[in-house]
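Narrative summary of target 7.
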Amino acid sequence: MHSNRAILISLIFISFISIPVSSHPHMFINIAMKLMLSDTGLLCIHTYWEVDEMNSAIILDYYDNNNNGRFEKNELVQILKITLPSICDVINISYGLESIETEEIKKFNAVVKNKETVIYSFVIPCNIHIKELTDKEVVIMFQDPTMYIAFDLKKDLIQVSHNNNIEGLFSFRTIDYTEAVVFRLIKKKE
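Modeled conformation, tokenized:
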């Protein structure tokens, strides 16, 4: 009888302990980005994700098959195959009442910095025409609904490309406990 009671108490204790553990982030990613302007509007967002040390070690161990400290083409294909759905699920871009469904990314690459930190770089296509952006803010967020990934915007590493006809200004805002980049397009006076 004592052993059944001890098992029950242990199970209850473990269930209470495991609740907070399962809801905290398991991966931390620092984000830098450059918003790329064209003559007609916001063309794309070039994004850089720096993965935390522990997860970088796991990625290197799993995907750097020849242990050379860099990712070969076939290794990059495998990384993208596994990570693409996750990347697309956490990108939230909206302007006015419209939102962009991110179903693909372009120019994916993964590099290893200082033999220990994995950095993903990729381009998020936007193609939002300047007419659609008049008097509207573009809100860019990276938000994991499972809360397994914590994103940190590196404010000093957020940029807007230069263009002769239009320019962009950005600021930061917290929305639903997530820090967002808020971008506004401005047509230059002729």
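Residues 27 and 149 are 5 Å apart (CA to CA).
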